Amino acid sequence: MSLTRKLLRLGNSVEALEAAKRAIHLSDSVLRLCLTISHLNRAMYFACDNVLWAGKTGVISRLDQHKWSQRSFRYYLFALILNLTRDVYELHLLIENEERCRAAKSTSPPQPSTTLLAGHLSSPSSPAASATNALPVMFVWLRRRLHLLVTVLYSNPPLLLDLLKNSCDIFIPLDRLSIYSTGSGFVGACGLTSSVLSILTMVHPWLKLKP
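Structure (tokenized):
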């Protein structure tokens, strides 16, 4: 069973390299950079995992398993950081697009935040009053941004699932590399959540974020 699992991991390395070859032709430079390097790091992670298996089975003698384990998790962590960067970038693009669509459709008077901000800037007041008036302006702005964020994520389930999955996965290498220790229970819960989300994308392929 262990041999079969490692052979499948070897297939994952090949698949990651093929995905990197496809990603390098993307037109968007940010996506091209993030996805290409992420797939290459995934391939290295799986390769290191196979080296560890070879050391445990005696195929490679005198292998420093701790060193190779740390190396594999560093590749895994870097791949996840790039995946999260890609998610945030796509989320930023979608939010900007949603804002443009709302601005194009809007025929209403200026937003309350704009009115409050204009009054705040134009009317003379003391520093204390200025600080007090800035609070409702900031609150309205934050509420508007939060509502926009929720709307975009609700309208794009593949991006939401990928963001959640990568956010859960990143705690695993952070804990194994002792960068941010969270405990085995929390790491196990994150791994379980990530697995469930992965199963969802396999059962419903339209939930998988593309490219």
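The two ends are 32 Å apart (CA to CA). The longest helix spans residues 65-105.
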